[in-house]
Write a sequence for this structure.
């Protein structure tokens, strides 16, 4: 029978996406059976053409992605089973080597091995280096068993990961199948069930990301008390545990969400990991929605080296910081500044006098709910029961004042009918920001406090769609007047210009905007 033609027009990512799409239409298929069939080179004819000519790392990624596609959405989410594409794996391994990981002599563990995205490429490097030393195959297998460890909570994935490793050794390095078959590098186990591990010099991987509710916390959660400033996230727990398990000098190189860099929930995490380890690199991965299948998340490569002894006082320091795309290309290199205490880490290109962000100030951005021309029947000229003031952009002055009457002058209809319990009514003092900045406007950002007295008089407000409201998210949020003042600073406006060329200000971007340090209350 003639082999089907290969797929020259699709990129590697597109081929994987096509393969996954095929299986997503057949969700009743068994995840392990289907992925093992691919691994044995017995794909369905529709998938065959997509696999032709794939390099081994991409073929492994396809096999693991099929398992993920068939394992069920809710289980996948609960386990954080989102697999690292080969180009990023290569990048992370190179970065680890730059900082001293030596695959010829070091012992390496992946505590959340998934479909062996890291274990197999690390094994490749080890085998190559040991063969160059003249080691025979039996010694190579013995060394792999001693020096390479993986752990995976999902039994099917652990089986698949071991099968992928064996395939690599047999097909790429011509090891005797019986010899390779004796290897069981990835064990099925819950990494967090054990307080810490011994037996590895370095940890490499991509731990699961998930914000944990109290009932989902790992056993002996007290272990993680020193990194907790609220709810824990699985990835921070893996980092903490990894550091507890490594010997001094050991390198931890993980892909993790970038949320810890500035998030207030990660204050203690940030300072604790610096006490325990030297931060060697924080490399931002570009493309929040295109790198991991089904995940929209800003991620980074974090490389730490465990200290010989904890430091008691954190001084200002720097770490390397690349900006890297999902295909492993480095687009820019700089330094991330690590402050003295537990404040946000400052990424390259961000001025040092703007070390904070909206979340640190205790606020979140919400775009004005009401689109006036679509809901004209709800708008009125006068106050009455069941109505609250509508905040027009014109009410926010370039001088940083809030003037409801000014908004009313331009737009006569400034009262809006609302059901009393509507979630979109703001009920506490907050900050209103003009969502678009007209050409020639003196300030890039026009922000004003809507004071408590206004809420006392009117009960609440609704913002029109050309306004963004910055609402406090916690009782200890900074004062809204101070936030409005900070947003109106020219240097903050300049940062917005750097980040956003358009006249309209995206709410998400406001959340990322560098701000001055949070003032003391
Ligand atoms: C983000 S994936 C990464 C997998 C793989 N290292 C990669 O980069 O493609 C995280 C993996 O950790 C596994 N996992 C989640 N919780 C775990 C735990 N407590 N112990 C061990 N593995 C766990 C998940 O099943 C999933 O396969």
């Amino acid at each position: 029978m003639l082999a089907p033609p290969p797929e020259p027009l699709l990129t590697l990512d597109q081929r994987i996406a096509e393969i996954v799409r095929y299986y997503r239409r057949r969700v009743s298929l068994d995840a392990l059976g289907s992925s093992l069939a691919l691994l044995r080179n017995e794909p369905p004819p529709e998938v065959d053409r997509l696999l032709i000519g794939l390099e081994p790392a991409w073929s492994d990624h396809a096999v693991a992605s099929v398992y993920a596609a068939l394992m069920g959405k809710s289980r996948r989410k609960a386990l954080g089973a989102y697999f690292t594409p080969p180009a990023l794996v290569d990048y992370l391994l190179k970065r680890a080597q730059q900082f001293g990981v030596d695959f010829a002599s070091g012992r390496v563990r992946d505590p959340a091995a998934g479909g062996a995205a890291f274990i197999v490429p690390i094994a490749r490097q080890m085998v190559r280096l040991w063969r160059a030393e003249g080691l025979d195959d039996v010694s190579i297998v013995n060394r792999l068993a001693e020096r390479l460890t993986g752990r995976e909570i999902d039994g099917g994935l652990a089986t698949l990961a071991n099968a992928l490793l064996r395939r690599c050794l047999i097909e790429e390095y011509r090891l005797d199948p019986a010899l390779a078959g004796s290897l069981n590098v990835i064990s099925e186990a819950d990494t967090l069930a054990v307080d810490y591990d011994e037996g590895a010099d370095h940890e490499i991987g991509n731990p699961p990301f998930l914000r944990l509710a109290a009932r989902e916390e790992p056993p002996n959660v007290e272990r993680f008390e020193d990194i907790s400033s609220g709810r824990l996230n699985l990835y921070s727990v893996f980092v903490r545990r990894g550091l507890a398990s490594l010997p001094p000098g050991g390198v931890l190189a993980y892909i993790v969400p970038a949320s810890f860099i500035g998030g207030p929930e990660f204050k203690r995490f940030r300072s604790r990991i610096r006490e325990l380890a030297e931060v060697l690199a924080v490399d931002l991965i570009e493309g929040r929605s295109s790198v991991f299948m089904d995940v929209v998340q800003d991620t980074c490569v974090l490389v730490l080296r465990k200290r010989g002894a904890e430091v008691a006082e954190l001084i200002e320091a720097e770490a390397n910081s690349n900006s890297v795309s999902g295909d492993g290309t480095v687009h820019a290199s700089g330094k991330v500044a690590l402050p003295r205490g537990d404040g946000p880490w400052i990424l390259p290109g961000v001025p040092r006098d703007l070390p904070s962000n909206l979340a640190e100030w205790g606020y979140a951005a919400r775009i004005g709910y009401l689109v006036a021309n679509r809901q004209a029947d709800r708008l009125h000229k006068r106050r009455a029961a069941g109505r609250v003031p509508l905040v027009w952009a014109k009410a926010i002055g370039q001088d940083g004042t809030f003037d409801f009457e000014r908004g009313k002058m331009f737009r006569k209809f400034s009262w809006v009918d609302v059901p009393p319990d509507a979630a979109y009514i703001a009920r506490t003092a907050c900050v209103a920001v003009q969502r678009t900045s007209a050409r020639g406007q003196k300030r890039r950002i026009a922000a004003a406090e809507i004071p408590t007295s206004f809420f006392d008089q009117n009960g609440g407000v609704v913002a029109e769609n050309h306004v963004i409201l910055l609402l406090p998210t916690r009782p200890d949020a900074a004062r809204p007047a101070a936030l409005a003042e900070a947003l109106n600073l020219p240097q903050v406006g300049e940062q917005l210009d750097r980040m956003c060329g358009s006249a309209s200000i995206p709410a998400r971007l406001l959340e990322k905007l560098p701000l001055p340090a949070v003032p003391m209350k």
User: Anything to note?
Assistant: The mean pLDDT is 92. The first helix runs from residue 12 to 24.
